[in-house]
Amino acid sequence: MRRPRFRVSWIANIAFAFGAMRAHKLRSFLTLVGVMAGVATVIMMVSFVVGFNNAVTEGFTAFGTYLVQFQKYEPRFGGPNGPPEEQRNRRDLTIEDAQALKRLSKLAAAVSQERYNFQGVVVKAGRLEANGPQFLGTNPDYSVANTHFVQDGRFITEADVSHAARVCIIGTDVADALFPHRDPIDQELTVNGRAYRVIGLFEKKGSAFGGSNNNFVAVPITAFDDQFPEVKNGGGDTIHIATVPRRPEDYDALIEEETAIMRTRRGLRPNQENDFAIFTSAGQLDNFRQVTGGVAAAMLVIAGIALLVGGVGVMNIMLVNVTQRTREIGLRKALGATRRDIATQFLIEAVTLTAVGGALGIAFGLGAAVTARYAFDFQAATPLWSVVLGFAVSTAVGLVFGMWPAMRAARQDPIEALRYE
Length: 421
What we know:
Elements: H1 10-23, H2 25-61, E1 68-71, H3 85-88, H4 95-104, E2 108-117, E3 123-125, E4 128-129, E5 134-138, H5 142-146, E6 150-153, H6 158-162, E7 167-170, H7 172-178, E8 188-191, E9 194-202, E10 216-220, H8 221-227, H9 229-233, E11 240-245, H10 251-265, E12 277-280, H11 281-324, H12 326-334, H13 339-375, H14 384-401, H15 403-410, H16 414-419
Parallel strand pairs: 5-10, 7-9
Antiparallel strand pairs: 1-11, 1-12, 2-5, 2-11, 3-4, 3-8, 6-9, 7-10, 8-9
């Protein structure tokens, strides 16, 4: 006659696991800390990296997805010593360079020469003052080259440039600061005491890199040079030349064509490197993504270490459980439980333990992302796949590290187990 089997359902095994956790709260919590830390790190890392990538993408595309900009210095971010000497010794880019690109390029839809005053200017209307707007001189192609169009009024014309007209286009931040309750068009403002007439209002754009894309005052480049000749003649990165292709598919060809034009104008031999820098939105975006990818990899290593520690903790606690419940194992086997039944019971307990740790880690990670969103105005984003991944990894840790304790429990001799004290 076959011995009856003593079967326990999956739900009952999960209930047993929760019962064991309640009976040993502190021990269970300490066991879960590693899993919680690992999963929380994964969720926070994904949330912050995705949010940062979105912010960077928005920031660069605000200047135009297909922007190709020529400048004296290579793109850089901070640093106490400024550009290296080799770059400082480069010849300045000129308005004539921009005019040559405009004349010779067959693929460019717009070529905008731009000069900026980075020393700061005082922009006022009566007693009201704007909050440190960016002041630049440019030409009619600026709007198309930088996808920065006017929503009211008009932009600079060739006649404005020819006559160094004292007209300007302002961003919405400047308009709100200087003309809060009236239409800014045809109003007058002063830049370091010199009067300009407002002829246009830039459309509102999103912020980028912690700054605003709406705090602008743009004037004809000739008017800029008339007011600030020291910027034009003072050396340094005095002019940027922004261009865009006529068609998106001509983007790479435009870079090659314009680079050849610039090299020819500057008399560079084939074996000489460019003595100018090329800034592209796509290129800088790729650089940032490489940086964030490196950060993500480092965070994943940290998360992996935490999960490993958590897994070892789970294995230890399950081995202790096997020892403490040796008589229970012997009794179950005496009543007909097979090795598979015993192994399944302890494996489900291990997976339940790490799944609870994973759920708590997910909650903590999501809480950190929400806190960053509302407390620091950082648009952290948590994709659904990261939550699923975090929970799947936590349960996999229980499955892997619970295997040995489960097999050890399953191999117990029922007679010896019943005699265990």
